[in-house]
Predict the structure.
Amino acid sequence: MNRFRSPVKREGAERYLLITLVSFAGSVVLTRLYLELSGYPQLGSGVLHIAHVLWGGLFLFVAALVPIIFANRWVYTLGALFGGIGVGLFIDEIGKFITQSNDYFFPFAAPIIYAFFLLTVMIYRQVRRPSKTDSRAELYRALDQVMELIENDLDEHESADLNARLIRVIAAPQFPEHARLAEALLAVLNSDTLHIADRTLTPFQRLIAQLETLEARLLNERRYRILVILGFAFAGVGSLIELFVFIAALFSSQLINDLIASLLISENLVTDPNSVAWFLILIVLSSITGSMMVAGGFFMFIGRDRIGSELGYLGLLISLTMVNLLLFYFSQFAAISTTIGEFALLVIVLRYRQLYLGIGSSINVLSRLADKPEPLVE
C-alpha cells in the first residue's frame, strides 16, 4: 500500500496565520515608531551593536522550538505570535543586508517589506478557502480536536463539531482502518462518562463579544453604507487633488519647477530621472484608483450599491497592491498610516458587502483572533 505524503491543512490554520500576519505588521510598525521617537538609539558600546534583527532571530528560534518540544494546541498560537514578531524584526532591517553600505533607509527596503507582507496576505486568503474533506483529511483534523478531550476542555460546540466530522469519515472512508478509528473515537465521544466543559470566554473573547454587540447597536445598514461612502470619498479625493495639481503644473513651467524643487528634490522623493518616471507612474496609478473609489462612493450615494461597492473595492485592491508599493519607495514608512487606513476601509467594505449585499465573506479579524467556533458546512 502506498504511503500518503500530500499535505493536509491544519484545523484552525487560518487563525494561526492571521496571528502571524498581525504580529508581523505590528512589530514592523511599532519598531519604526519607537526608533523614530527615540532617535534611533543603539544597544551596545564600542564595537558592539545589538541590532533588532538579533531579537527577531531569537523570536524565530523560539517559534521553531515550541512545536518541536510541546504537543499542546496552545503552542501553535504561541509559535504563530513569536514567528510573526520575529519575521517583522528581521525583515525591518533588510536594507542593511542588500546594500554594501548597510543602509537601513535604502529606498527599496520598504517596498520589499510591504511586498513580503502582501505575499503573506495572499497565502492567508488561499488558506481560508475550503479544503478537501476526504476521510484522511477529516481524521487529521479530528485528531487535532481530540486534544481538547485529552485536556478535559471539550465544550458542547466542539463535541458536536467533532461528532459530525467522525460521522463523515465513517460514511465515506478511504480505507477500512479510517472507519474503525473514527468509530472508536465516536464511541469515546458518546460515552456517558465524557466530561463536557462549560465554554468560558477569555477576557479577549468577552471584549470581542462586546465589540460585536456595539457594532450591531451603532452600525445598522444605513450607517454602514454612509461609512463606506465617506471612506471611499476620503480615500479617493486626495489622489484626485494631487492629479489636478500636477495637471495644472504641466501648463505652467514656473509652477512645475517650483513643485519639483520644493516638493520632490527638497524632500528627497526624486533623486534621478528614473525616479521621476516612477513618480509620474505613481501619480497616474493613484489618480486611477482615486477615481474608482470616488466613483464607487457616488454610485452608492445614488443607490447603486452593488456596482459602487465593487468599483470602490477594486480601486482599494489596486491601491493596496500597486500604488502603495510605489508609495513606500518614495516616502518610506510615512506611507504606513495610509496603508493601515486603506486596509481598515477594505475590511469595512467587505463586511458591508457580506452583511447587506450577500457578496463574498467578511474578514472578521477580531472573531478569528478570538478563535470563535464556526459551524461546519455540510
Q: What stands out?
A: Residues 241 and 287 are 9 Å apart (CA to CA). DSSP finds 15 helices and no strands in the chain. The radius of gyration is 25 Å.
